[in-house]
Amino acid sequence: MQSARKPPTELPTMEPQNGETMPLSGKPYHAFILSKSHVAPIYNLVLPAKFHSILPAIVIPAVLLCRGKKWKIDYHGNRRGKALDSKQWRKFVNDNCLKSGDAIVFELLECSSSILKFRVQILSGDIPLELHDKFSGETKETPIHLD
């Protein structure tokens, strides 16, 4: 006698591999064109103002999910800004061979007073300089359009 299987209560957590991308889930996101300050030598990633009202104003752990792997990283939230720990962000940058001109999409999957989870999708390649301004402020309301 076979037992009835319960339907899954959550969506699969499979993440794309080898540079594949996934559709956005409808949760808050922001696209970045990485600049020199994001990838060397400062390794500074400040989260955009549109996330400030959603994110807590405390220091808590965060997880970056990307290409089937997880990176633990500290999130620093305060009145002046919301940012990721630069040493841990540097490890993410180096592990993924990110460089200035690459595009990344941060999608906020979970936000609580104890943890943040972001899915990060990487669009590797040199985005032409003339497109940097066009994509630097992408939001849910203004999606990325590549012609």
From TrEMBL:
GO terms for molecular function: DNA binding. It is found in: Nucleus. PROSITE patterns: B3. One of its GO terms (cellular component) is nucleus. The keyword Oxidoreductase does not apply. Residues 30-126 form the TF-B3 domain. It holds the Pfam family B3. Keywords: DNA-binding, Nucleus, Transcription, Transcription regulation. Residues 1-20 are annotated as: Disordered. Coiled coil: none annotated. This is TF-B3 domain-containing protein. It comes from Cucumis sativus (Cucumber). The lineage of its organism: Eukaryota, Viridiplantae, Streptophyta, Embryophyta, Tracheophyta.
